[in-house]
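Endoribonuclease YbeY structure dump, as promised
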Amino acid sequence: MTLTIDMMDETGTVGEKDQQLVMRLLEHAAVMEKVGEAEVSVTFMDDESIRTVNRDYREKDRATDVISFALEETVEGEMELSSPEGMPRLLGDILISTEMADRQAEEYGHSREREIGFLALHGFLHLLGYDHMDEEEERRMFGRQDEILKSFGLGRGTDGRP
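structure tokens r here:
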């Protein structure tokens, strides 16, 4: 099992330690989710950049913490994409606002490291088809998210705070 992660930091604020944490966490999640050979990209950006993406692609003119673009997800009228046999799955892109992550870490009283890990995992689970459009989906997604974070060592309270 190999997860290839293409990581870009457009902000220059995400150090090697945080990037390595995201890589290890997503690799851990890929094993737990039995993803197999796959590729994903993670881009760290500022509020203004993610706001532009959110406006242009989701018609929501505001900054947000994380956006995922799943390549395996199809909408009505689209052809389903699949990877040729022997090629890795192309899961998609995860965009994270580091400015929003910093504010949320402070608001929730935990480390920036945990918040960036949480957002990366949240985006990754969306790429795998998890969603939170109704209560049942939300319970399933957030339950799995908590399970993965805890087994990785980033569960609630693991950084000395609630």
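The two ends are 34 Å apart (CA to CA).
lmk if u need the other ones
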